[in-house]
Write a structure and sequence with these properties.
Elements: E1 2-6, H1 12-22, E2 29-35, H2 42-49, H3 52-57, E3 61-65, E4 74-77, E5 80-84, H4 90-94, E6 100-104, H5 106-121, E7 123-126, H6 128-132, H7 136-162
Parallel strand pairs: 1-2, 2-3
Antiparallel strand pairs: 1-4, 3-7, 4-5, 5-6
Helix pairs in contact: 2-7
């Protein structure tokens, strides 16, 4: 089984599920296609990158798209495809009003798989050993951006709970 995900923001919650899929006994081929050097919200990308180590340790392959900003929200699992506006993050689970369409269609899944392959070819695969050697400044950016996202989530949660 192969599972491919293209998403602008990759969350901690979904990340836990994907990590489990990549480990034995499942051993599913999970590939993530995420924004690379171009992003409309760089600090969100930095915050998402703080999860890469755990994902890479679990055998999940991460690709960062290089030519331009990627805004796709597509999931592919065998003959099942989900396409829409929802990011796989807590913001969409709790606050945003986005939607996806899920389709079970082998022909469409084959076409989407072909698009993924084209995009993977235009991407840089993140290697665990290289990831471990990234500069301290990158690590600091990831940590600070992650704290900012957590702080904003706490504010939004408090506002929601006051209603």
């Amino acid at each position: 089984m192969q599972k491919e995900i293209a998403d602008l923001f990759f969350p901690e919650l979904v990340g836990r599920t994907v990590v489990e899929l990549g480990k034995p006994p499942y051993g599913i081929d999970v590939r993530l296609l995420l924004p690379g050097r171009f992003s409309d919200h760089p600090w969100i990308s930095f915050a998402a990158r703080r999860h890469y180590s755990r994902l890479l340790h679990s055998g999940i392959r991460i690709f960062e798209y290089q030519p331009s900003f990627i805004h796709a929200k597509i999931n592919l699992c065998d003959d099942w495809v989900s396409i829409g506006s929802s990011n796989l993050d807590r913001w969409n689970q709790h606050w945003n009003l986005d939607a996806n369409q899920a389709i079970y269609n082998p022909k469409l899944a084959t076409e989407v798989a072909s698009l993924f392959q084209e995009d993977f070819a235009k991407s840089v695969e993140i290697n665990l050993e290289e990831w471990k050697r990234r500069p301290w400044l990158a690590r600091l950016r990831e940590r600070l951006s992650g704290r900012l996202v957590a702080w904003l989530e706490n504010i939004m949660r408090a506002r929601r709970d006051r209603r």
